[in-house]
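sorry for the late reply, my laptop died twice this morning and i had to redo everyting from scratch. anyway the thing you sent over, i finally got around to it. pasting the sequence first so we're on the same page, its 165 residues, then the predicted structure underneath. double check i copied it right bc i was rushing
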Amino acid sequence: MEAIRKTFNQYDKDKNGSICATEFKQICYDMGYFLSDEEVQMDIKLLDLDGSGAITYDEFIKWWQRDDRFKMLQFGPEEMERLDTFTKLFKKYDNDKSGCIDIREFKSLFVDLSKKKLVNKSLMAAMRDLDANNDGKVSFNEFVTWSIRNEPLSRTPSRNIIPST
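ok and here's the structure:
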């Protein structure tokens, strides 16, 4: 764990306790993985479990300990487009911009998901599916994880992008 902390601290250039997009891009580049600015922004969204806009040390540990940590960050054009579509869909219904969709907001999202044939369950059953931590809200990461689990990206079967907690 000390080596992970050392790596984290080395790239936390402003010493604020989190890794921003610029710092994250540098980590990846230094490790031999170039990511476009668009990929970095999407990766930050996927790894940022608390919705702070940066990667905290705890989030960094979960990612760093994965054997496929860099492979999981690289997306093809179809995957980027799909993730972007789901990001926009989430933002459309996150009316209060909290990073979570409550049951009131979810009702409208549910109608949209049903029209697109992405759910075939009742409202409450769909909410239970998406609300992985059972807190009564659907976070951005829960939504992305659900979208990947229920309709795999591109031609890659059941790719788990979000580190499990």
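The longest strand covers residues 18-19.
thats about all i looked at so far, will dig more tmrw
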